[in-house]
Specification:
single chain, disordered N terminus, alpha/beta, Rossmann fold
Length: 523
């Protein structure tokens, strides 16, 4: 078996980054042959004061809720940007503050309010998503009625950031392979994970202990206040559903209209999440192969089983003998698999996967490497657009107790490989990442009910490989006020990729307050 030195949940670290492409409905064409509240919109150069706070706020947080935020024109004058201060530690707010970077796309006319957006992760940049992919995650109808606000959560990107590795070290970590199924390989992987944890602790300091999801959800209530909304309107994808559900659990009386798309089950353990993804990705691979074999340029001959086996054999060959890309970089199985996974997030990107597989079968991994780099946000010059690699581990090590007992990890690895003969071994032994982490977990998996919250809209996609449909069913069942909308389709998340049925359900809910019928199915 092989193991990349990576944050917890194995290659789901890379899956997280790929989710941004899926959420924003990005098509990889370049790789293929060809209760709102009354809200005063912020204006450039003005200070935005918080409205009267809904519910009680501790005295030691009043300064954060009442801060006046200066909005300035940014990104070629296309948006407004600001910096918002939040406490590092909500148990001791006066000790130190950190900064959140915020971007706002203004609605035309008089907005109904603000919709806060999180694209997923943990580690996804809401700032970059609003700046680069606004039209992919929203429609003109929604943008015409609401300001859309993106933010980099604590530890992410332009906000006060977690930092662990140099760009060169991230390259090395993404490609590193060990074999933890053997005693020697397990010790090598453990030592590598400990080295990574020590680097994070040294360069990030005490911030590393305060980037948990509950703290980020508390930050969102301050963002709600400085945006001028008495209640939070929120659009969260993938991990963003966990963040949004956590907010609703903490502040049920401040829930406006929450859309949670591609849900994570908050009661699932790290190991259960990894196993669920293994099963879902194996199903997605079969769906891709079946579709591929209907085209004349598909390199996967025979039956669906034959095509899947060709992929497995190709990955095994790269494990045995890494390939060289056109730029001279060595493509190991870890890098290859991360590139293979990314197009599975969005069936519009399946043609790019077909091209990448075809080239790789001829000995050229260049296109697969391009996909891997896109998922990791790596630029051609070797720099990285974000610190998402580091943030993923930092958040998950605080949010989830991780299994690191060798015997149990070996048993889990066998279960993963049975669930996904194609990818399961790459998802195993993820608990090693947090074994030497400088900070103990502060959260644990549990059902979230948000008792007393206004109706919440949960959306699940039946063929979602990264957040299996069953998780949306689970979250909708836990939240007291949730309704579930189902999209019968392949790929990760629905709104922005889905059909008019999905768009109408989301926008009628945000704009008119119309709650969809629980159990609505869009096909």
């Amino acid at each position: 078996m092989t193991h990349e030195r990576r944050p917890p949940r194995g290659l789901s670290r890379t899956l997280r980054r790929a989710a941004a492409a899926g959420t924003a409905a990005v098509v990889l064409a370049g790789l293929v042959a060809c209760t709102p509240g009354d809200s005063e919109a912020p204006r450039e150069g003005t200070q935005s004061a918080a409205p009267e706070v809904v519910g009680e706020v501790p005295e030691d947080l009043q300064d954060f809720y009442s801060q006046k935020v200066v909005w300035e024109s940014c990104e070629d004058d296309s948006f407004l940007c600001a910096t918002v201060e939040v406490p590092l530690d909500y148990e001791d707010p006066g000790r130190q503050s950190i900064e959140l970077s915020v971007i706002l796309a203004e609605a035309g006319g008089t907005p109904e309010g603000t919709v806060l957006v999180n694209p997923g992760g943990p580690g996804g940049s809401g700032y970059a998503t609003v700046r680069d992919s606004l039209e992919g995650i929203t429609t003109a109808r929604l943008r015409g009625e609401f300001n859309i606000m993106g933010f980099d959560p604590r530890g992410v990107g332009r906000s006060t950031p977690v930092d662990c590795l140099s760009d060169k070290e991230v390259d090395e970590a993404r490609a590193e392979m060990t074999d933890p199924s053997t005693p020697a390989g397990l010790e090598e992987a453990r030592a590598s994970a400990a080295e990574y944890a020590a680097a994070c602790a040294e360069t990030s300091g005490e911030l590393l202990g305060f980037v948990d999801t509950e703290s980020a959800a508390r930050d969102m209530d301050i963002l709600r206040a400085v945006a001028g909304d008495p209640k939070l309107n929120y659009l969260g994808f993938s991990y963003g559903t966990y963040l949004g559900a956590t907010y609703a659990e903490l502040f049920p009386e401040k829930v406006g209209r929450l859309v949670l798309d591609g849900a994570i089950d908050p009661a699932a353990s790290n190991e259960e999440i990894t196993l669920g993804q293994a099963r879902a990705f194996e199903q997605a691979i079969r769906a891709y192969v079946e579709d591929c074999q209907t085209s004349s340029n598909c390199p996967l001959d025979g039956t669906v089983d034959d095509g899947v086996q060709t992929i497995r054999d190709l990955i095994a060959s790269v494990e045995a003998s890494p390939l060289s890309a056109a730029d001279g970089r060595l493509v190991t199985a870890a890098t290859f698999v991360s590139g293979f996974i990314l197009p599975l997030y969005n069936d519009a990107n399946w043609p790019a996967l077909t091209q990448a597989l075809g080239s790789a079968l001829r000995g050229d991994p260049t296109t697969m490497l391009m996909l891997a780099d896109l998922g990791a946000e790596r630029n051609p010059d070797g720099t990285y657009e974000s610190n998402s690699y580091e943030v993923f581990s930092a958040v998950n090590c605080l949010d989830y107790p991780m299994e690191s007992d060798p015997e149990q990890m070996a048993a889990d690895a066998a279960e993963l490989e049975a669930a996904s003969p194609t990818l399961g071994r790459f998802l195993a032994y993820g608990g090693l990442t947090c074994e030497a982490w400088a900070y103990e977990p502060v959260n644990e998996p549990r059902p979230l009910t948000a008792e007393g919250a206004a109706p919440i809209l949960v959306i699940g996609t039946t063929g979602d490989p990264a957040t299996p449909y069953e998780w949306s069913q689970a979250l909708a069942g836990q939240l007291d006020s949730a309704v579930l909308v189902t999209w019968e389709a392949e790929g990760h998340t629905a709104y922005g990729r889905g059909n008019q049925c999905i768009a109408d359900a989301v926008e009628d809910y945000f704009i008119d307050g119309t709650v969809p019928e629980d159990g609505l199915v869009c096909s």
